[in-house]
Amino acid sequence: MSYRPLIYLLLFACNYATAQDSRPFVLQTEEDGVRVYVRDESAGELSVRVVTQAATTLPRVRRTLDEASRYDEWVHRCDGAYIVPGGTANNFVYVSGIDMPFPFRDKEVVARVRQWVDAAGVLTRTITAEPGAIPPTDGRDRLTVYGGEWVIRPLADGEVELQCTVRTDAGAGLPGWLRKEIMTGGPARTVANLRRRLEAAR
After folding, report:
1. Model confidence over 95-130: pLDDT tens digits?
2. Buried b (16+ CB within 10 A) or exposed e, 177-202
3. Which CATH number fits domain 17-200: 2.60.40.10, 3.40.50.2000, 2.40.50.140, 3.30.530.20?
């Protein structure tokens, strides 16, 4: 892939207000079956939507998304993640670290995941920032603006559509090259990594 990316985790997705915004996303790049759409938001925030297809099953996608302890194997720039005790299988808080290049401070996401499968068999997984859910982590800047949504749709012939939408201000105050990597490249790389991981497990 030509883009140099990062993510948060993309991981993992949300029922935030912009999901209801009527303004369209604009296609920015398409490479190797991965389409990246963007939409500028207020206050320097950006929404990014990444869409692709994978030869896998919905249960396998869900198991992979639920396995936070292995996010560092496929979520771009993730340097560790875990689920906070006390939630349920469909409603829980997770923490994901973001490794930043020197001299910038590392970041982290603390967010609540809610997920369900509808009558059509579509998995929706929303992510909403809850920065106050656990005490601060020394040496890391916690994101206060972060939201996302995964929508996994079963398709014919043993494939699924993977759609991930993320809204964040994680690039605020960073140089342009790093802001681009974090805000758009990261989600794209993460989704592409997830597709390869799912297809390799068949």
Report:
1. 999 998 888 889 999 999 999 999 999 999 999 999
2. ebbbbbbbbbbbbbbbbbbebbeeee
3. 3.30.530.20
